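NSUN7 methyltransferase (Sylvia borin), 246 aa
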Amino acid sequence: EKRTVTRIEKSGYPDSIYINAAKIFQGIRTEKSEDKSQVRYGDNSESPMVAFKDEHSRRASYELAFNALKYQDLLEEILLDSKVYPCYSIPDELTSLLVVMLYDLQDRKFQKRKIFAEEEVVAEVQEIGHYLYSYRTKLAAALARCRIKYDALSIEYFLPETVWKQEQRASALPVCFWINTLKISLEDVIRDLEMKGFTKVESVSDFDHYTYAVDQHCHDVLVFPSSLREELLNLDLFADCKLLLQ
């Protein structure tokens, strides 16, 4: 009996990913002059060490950090407009964590974060997570006011047009994975994918959601529709490094 692939709901991350994303964001955030910036970040003259548990954690941390960077101006405006910032119990050194966790909170529609039972708890993440969630109504209202102010249907409309167009083009490209033949064969990958409800087609022109094709020139490369990217990154095949994202 085939198992179907279920859509993955956004439910937050383990504490370690927020901490790592905040460290990355602290080093790449847009610096503003003191007279223009009302949001204060701690000193980032020294690059903090970032330790990742595995490849999935690394990708999730960088993705969260760069999403916060893309929407830094909007996130700061939401914090200020809602009066959630400044908060004198949160030092400047934790502002980056506040911003990346705010991005994630709005990304999951201000719903409660999932609890990861076996994950190490980080006190700062718990504190800021509870703080933001307690003000979720004010934050959601501030986001709504920003959307009305800038006539934006969604937060994607806050991106510069050049960035938005690049993301649109990138999101339409098929997703390619190398088969790690040191760990698994093409036949075993196909068998695993079929058990999960995927169907093999001849080419990308035949894609219809849960489908994939074998690259015509590299037979150890599989190609999937772009819409499946998030779900593919949560497969055991990817977590076990049997499929490697191109």
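The first strand starts at residue 175 and ends at 179. Residues 173-245 form a domain with the Alpha-Beta Plaits fold (CATH 3.30.70.1170). ok done for today
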